[in-house]
Structure formats: C-alpha cells, structure tokens
Specification:
The chain is mostly helical. It is built from 19 helices and eight strands. Keywords: Coiled coil.
C-alpha cells in the first residue's frame, strides 16, 4: 500500500518532468552546447572483459553462525561476487552471493557497526556483559552496513589486507552509487528532478544521502524512508528475545521488506517509463514544430514570475547566502584540488618509473608489459586511494547545518568520480600518443625521449582539463548547497502564489513548461551571478592552479581526437614479445585483472582452498542439519586459534588437491543446468548467475576457463526474476549447491 502510494505520486512527477527534459534535450541539440573543448581523449569502454580484483576473504554466514573462506571477485561492473573457493570460480560454478553495494557504508570497526545497529532500533541496547550481535575472530573486520538491506560481515588476517580490501569495497560503493546513467539526456534528468520535486512536496529540501544506485534502488530508498519509521513503531515493541536477537530479527525484517518494496517499485517504474516512451514521438514532433512558440511562451512566463519572485530572492541571497559563498568555495577547493594534484602526481610517477624500468630492463618487450598495467591505472583502487582520501578532509563546519546539508558524502564521491575519469583520460591520451610514435622510434634512447616528451604534452592537457572540470564541479556543488536552502526560505511567501501563473501557459505547451520548474530557474538566476563571480575570482588569483575562463587552450593536436575514435589498443596482442610463451589461460587470467592479489600463485594465498578444515562441512550442508537456536548469540567457531590451526594443517597438507565436493561439482565436461532457485533465494536485481547462453563449455582437456561474471550476475540487470518474495521472510545465503542468493 505504501509503495503504491509513493510510486503513484512519484510517477505523476516523473511524467511532468519527462516532457520538460525532452524539450530541454531537443533545444540543447538544436542550439548547441558551447563550453571549452576537452584536451584529453575519453575512453568509451575502459574495463570491458576485465576483472578489478579477486582474492580470498573470510565471510560470516548468519544462517549457521560460522566464518567461512570465500573467493571474492570484483568484475568490470563493480559487483561483489562471492564463490565457494577459487576452484569453483574457475570451473564456472554458480557463486554463493552477489552484492550490489549501492547505499552501503564500509566499516572497519565492530564498535562503529554496533553503534549504528543500536541507533537503528531505539531503546534496544545490549546490557554490559551480554554478547553483542557480532563477534569478529580477528582484529581486522570489514563490514558492509546498509540502513535497509542486509549487512555483510568479512574479516582478514592483517592490517595490510584490510586496507587493500577496504579500498576495493569503497571503489565498488562509489561506482554503484553512481548508478544513474549520465548518457541519457532525457530519462536521467527527468528522474532526478522528479525525485527532488517529490521530496520538496514533503518539505524535504537539501541533499539526500540515499540518492544512490540505479533508479529502482533510489525509489526503493524513497519508499523505505517513509515506511521504515512506521514499521519500527509497529513491529519494534513486539520483538521477543534478548537485545542482540531483537536487533538481528529487525535487520532481517527490514531486509525482507526492502526486497518486497524493490520488486513492486521495479514493476511500477518500468510501466511508467514505458508509457512515457510510448508518448515520446508525438511530444518530440510537437517540440520540433513549435520550438519558437514554446520558447517565447516560457520566456513570457519567466518574466512574470521573475517580477514577483526576484526582489524577495535577491534580499534572501544578500542576507543569507552571499556572505558564505567564499567560505563554502574555499572548503570545497582545498581538498578537491589536492586530490587532482595527487592524480597528476601518481600519473607522473607511474609513467616516469615505467620509463626508467623500460630503459634499464629491455626496451619494447618491457614497455608492453608496463603499458598493460598502466592502461588501467585509474581503476586500481589501491593506487588511486591516495587521491581519493584527500576528499576526506572536506568539512563544511557550521555551514553544513546552516544550509541543511545532511552529509558531505555526495560531494566527496562526485569529486572522486571526476578524479578517476581525469586519470583514465590522461592515461588513454598518453597511450594513444605513444602508440602512434612507436613505429618511428629507433633504440632505447629514442623511446625514453619520446615517452618523456609525450608525458609533458599530456600533463599540459591534464592541467587545462582539470581546471575546467573542477570549476564546473565547484559551481554545481555551490548550487546544490544553496538552491534548496533558498527554496525552503522562500516557500512560505512564494510557493502558495505560484498557482496563479498557470493560466499564462498555453494548453498545447503545458507538457513542456511547468510553473514550478520556471520558478526554480528564477531562484537559480538570483544566486548564479554571485557563484560565477566567486569561482572566477578564484581562477583570476590562480588559486589551486585554476585557469581563467578567458584562457582557451587551442587544440595543438588536431588529429588526436580522430585517433581516440579508433580500435582500443591491446598491447599484449599487438606486441607479443614474451621470451617464454605461457599458457593462454594463465596469461588471460593475469592480463585481465587490474589489481593483483596478494599472491597470484595457486595455493600461496593465506586462505587458499585446499582443505576442508575451515569450511567444515564443505558443501552442500547435510540435509539433517538443525536450524540454529535463534536465542543463541552469534558464536565464532572460526576464531583466531582455529583459523591458525586450519592454516597450519593446510600448509602441511596437499593444498592443491580440491575437496571431494569440489571434484563432484567439477566432474561434468560442461556446466550443469541450474536447478530451480527457491523464492527466498531470488534476487530483486535480476536473474541469478548461470553460464551465458551460447558460451562454449570448458572441456577437461583444455583446463578450466576463467569465469567472467556478467552484469546480470552482479545485480545490475534489473530484469524481474519471476520469483515471489515471501512476506517478511528473511532470506539467507543458500548453502546448498542448487541455488544462489543475489543481493542488492
């Protein structure tokens, strides 16, 4: 009922905003975009067929209260895919768990987690001396916390591993949070504006932390924001058991409700989109035919609203916004510019080190090896971490409360995404220019000088593009902070009077001109002049290496952008100069992974699968296994001592011999067809993992193929799964080999 009510109101907003966004898109197409031309090339498919990271990690399984060793793979779309072990991954067996990490927070302390859990269910706090909801067998936990969905518990053995996994997990969250495609000039702005209008209709202004993930996830968060407090007040007092058990039950209930909401939201939103798409040809035809009349009508409406609103808005800006613009800008500029400077430094260092190593170690062959690594530098979470963490310094101090900014995380993540994009643009431009030069070079000296010369050219282009990107980011962030504040301030005196302007819009143009949107544009104009001036002054003073707007870098490489349109460079295929040929499967596995594991050799990882000690029983679970007593605290049978004993046994035993159950799984020459997945194991995101249709089955003679999880496997495909979710029934990791649990 709640989902239907919220989605009904939202879909009405979406239909209105769709017409406005379509008009703006067609007008933009006709009038042109303007703006400075970027100097660096942009790679279209930066991570196609690549794996970001893979390695072993301990996961806490709530259903049997045990810590289990899992092989975790992060594919190109940044989903988290957990397999039984490395062998299961290589043999293309279905993964155990799939996680889309949008909306999650990465915690490295059990105390942090317990504080969030205690706050999620007010009045339910474990007494001192009682077992908490979670115990970790090592000092290095990694916990994925979500305000609505289920939580995930991991741990590793060393601080170095924890930092590496934390960087990987944070990259996954950053990428998945940015789930609304910016390539769409109609659907994306229509959606985000509809969300904003809906929240403003509920008197909720300012930034929103849960505007993360794909459209269905965002709408599910919108529903849960209203639904969860009602559920908590209704169900919370009825929960039984000790405090940790009540907390655990509440997390399961919240997760089950979130899944139900997701399924309903997905269906209703897709239906609304389909209706808008059906009407699009007629709307677009009207826009193109009557473009001049629509623009004239809109300008007439804007002039009337401006005469009414602008005097009040200017007073509000002068008294409440203008004095703080420079402070907000300085708070944004310092960490952001430090982050971009670090991107430049990391890029410079990597290329310089590569140049020295190529000269010292062997010319072209070594160049190919290093270029394969350099080409994905932007997607290396560990190497990029020093750039990203500069944004952790972003503090708005008292400004945050004054302007109703709930959190700075929105701005941090946006800046970090810009950093990653600028790094990839710089790397791609460098490798394109170097690839063009290689045929003309003779000897190491020529190669060394050419690399240095190209590096200097790319750094100049980077400085120019970096300035452009940062100035745009600062303007957008200032608007994002100040506009909601102004709208909230002006609402009591202006919003009630807007209805009288509706009669100024011709009925034929009512789908493309909205009074509310025009009013917001007038408010934006009232503060835009001050924001532009503040950013311009910062550039004139050369603060943080910003360029003036009048500085236009003419394209010194007129053919460079034509080069960028060519076929992507595959260094390993074009220059196969290995002295010793290596097996194709091994070379593919190594070359396709952006971040190496701690030890890439089989059997050398601290938790490499090869014994049943940690995974007792391995898989599947015996059918006669009894359900754990819900009143028992979560024990840690895989404690430090037991883990160490298991590792000791593993080092003595035959680590490379797969367990009996793994051999049974691996016996068929081709992957077995997947058994029916029970409803509680279905994913709200899409169809569970299965071998791709038409894919060749790995034969035993050829060796196991390295399985590359698809978008569907990592929860980014939002196709309805067809299974029904049982009401308020918590769903857990499927411990039988027949199914797979897929997650948000």
């Amino acid at each position: 009922e709640k989902t239907g009510k919220v989605l009904g109101e939202f879909c009405r907003c979406y239909k209105e905003q769709y017409g406005v966004a379509l008009f703006n898109s067609v007008r933009y197409e006709i009038e042109g975009n303007g703006g400075p031309q970027p100097q660096l090339l942009h790679r279209k498919l930066p991570l196609e067929d690549h794996v970001i990271y893979s390695g072993n990690i301990f996961q806490y399984i709530e259903e049997n209260k045990k810590w289990r060793n899992r092989f975790c793979v992060v594919p190109h779309n940044y989903g988290l895919v957990l397999y039984e072990n490395k062998l299961a991954y290589e043999r293309e067996l279905p993964p155990r768990v799939l996680v889309n990490s949008a909306g999650y927070k990465i915690l490295t302390s059990v105390d942090q987690y317990l504080e969030l859990v205690n706050n999620s269910l007010p009045g339910v706090t474990p007494k001192s001396g009682h077992s908490p909801i979670l115990k970790c067998p090592t000092d290095f936990p990694l916990i994925l916390w979500h305000p609505y969905a289920r939580h995930y518990y991991f741990c590793v053995m060393t601080g170095k591993e924890q930092e590496k996994w934390r960087a990987v997990f944070q990259d996954c969250v950053r990428h998945c949070n940015n789930g609304i495609s910016e390539d769409s000039r109609v659907e994306a702005p229509a959606f985000t504006d509809a969300v904003r209008m809906y929240r403003q209709s509920k008197e909720q202004y300012g930034t929103w932390d849960m505007l993360c993930g794909n459209e269905t996830q965002v709408l599910s968060n919108l529903v849960m924001e209203e639904l969860l407090p009602e559920l908590r007040s209704t169900i919370g007092p009825r929960l039984k058991g000790k405090a940790p058990e009540r907390q655990r039950t509440w997390i399961q209930i919240s997760d089950a409700v979130y899944r139900m909401v997701y399924e309903q939201t997905n269906a209703q939103y897709e239906a609304a989109m389909a209706r808008c798409e059906q009407e699009r040809p007629q709307l677009e035809s009207t826009i193109r035919t009557d473009m001049d009349q629509i623009i004239t009508s809109k300008e007439h409406l804007a002039s009337k609203i401006r005469a009414f609103v602008l005097p009040k808005a200017e007073v509000c800006v002068r008294n409440h916004v203008q004095p703080y613009i420079s402070s907000i800008l300085e708070a944004l500029m310092t960490p952001t510019s430090q982050g971009f400077a670090e991107v430049r430094e990391v890029f410079f260092k990597e290329v310089t080190d590569m140049n020295m190593n190529v000269v010292n170690e062997g010319g072209l062959e070594k160049l190919v090896e290093y270029m394969e690594k350099l080409s994905h530098l932007a997607f290396h979470p560990v190497k990029m971490q020093s750039c990203y963490e500069k944004m952790d310094q972003l503090k708005l101090e008292g400004l945050q409360q004054r302007f109703d900014v709930s959190s700075t995380s929105v701005f941090k993540q946006r800046a970090q995404i810009h950093m990653r994009q600028q790094m990839d643009d710089a790397v791609y431009t460098f490798e394109t220019l170097l690839h063009q030069e290689l045929g003309k070079l003779q000897g190491k000296d020529d190669l060394c000088k050419s690399i240095q010369r190209i590096l200097e050219r790319v750094l100049k282009k980077f400085d120019y593009d970096s300035s452009t990107v940062r100035k745009k980011f600062f303007r957008e962030a200032l608007l994002q902070i100040t506009i909601p504040f102004l709208l909230k301030k002006l609402a009591p005196t202006c919003k009630g009077e807007l209805a009288k302007f509706q009669e100024l819009i011709f009925e034929d143009f009512a789908s493309f001109i909205l009074v509310e949107n025009t009013y917001e544009e007038v408010v934006l104009q009232s503060v835009m002049k001050d924001i532009m001036q503040a950013v311009k002054e910062a550039a004139v003073q050369r603060k943080h290496n910003l360029y003036r707007d009048s500085m236009v870098m003419h394209n010194s490489d007129p053919n460079l952008h034509l080069l960028g349109e060519g076929i992507p460079i595959d260094w390993g295929e074009e220059y196969p100069g290995h002295s010793e040929p290596e097996p194709a499967a091994d070379r593919r596995r190594r070359a396709k992974q952006v971040v190496s594991v701690i030890q890439d050799d089989e059997g050398a990882l601290p938790y490499e699968m090869g014994t049943e000690a940690l995974l007792q029983p391995s898989s599947p679970e015996p059918p006669e296994r009894q359900e754990p007593d819900p009143g028992m605290p979560p024990s840690s049978p895989g404690g430090v001592q037991e883990i160490r004993e298991a590792l000791a046994q593993e080092s003595i035993g035959h680590a490379d011999v797969p367990s009996e159950s793994s051999v049974q799984h691996a016996t068929p020459a081709s992957p077995q067809p997947r058994a029916h997945v029970p409803p509680e194991a279905e994913v709200p995101h899409g169809t569970p993992a299965s071998p791709a249709p038409g894919a060749e089955s790995p034969s035993p003679a050829a060796g196991p193929a390295c399985h590359q999880p698809s978008d569907r496997e990592t929860g980014e495909d939002t196709t309805p799964s067809g299974g029904e979710c049982s009401p308020l029934q918590p769903t857990g990791t499927t411990e039988s080999g027949e199914g797979v649990q897929t997650e948000f």
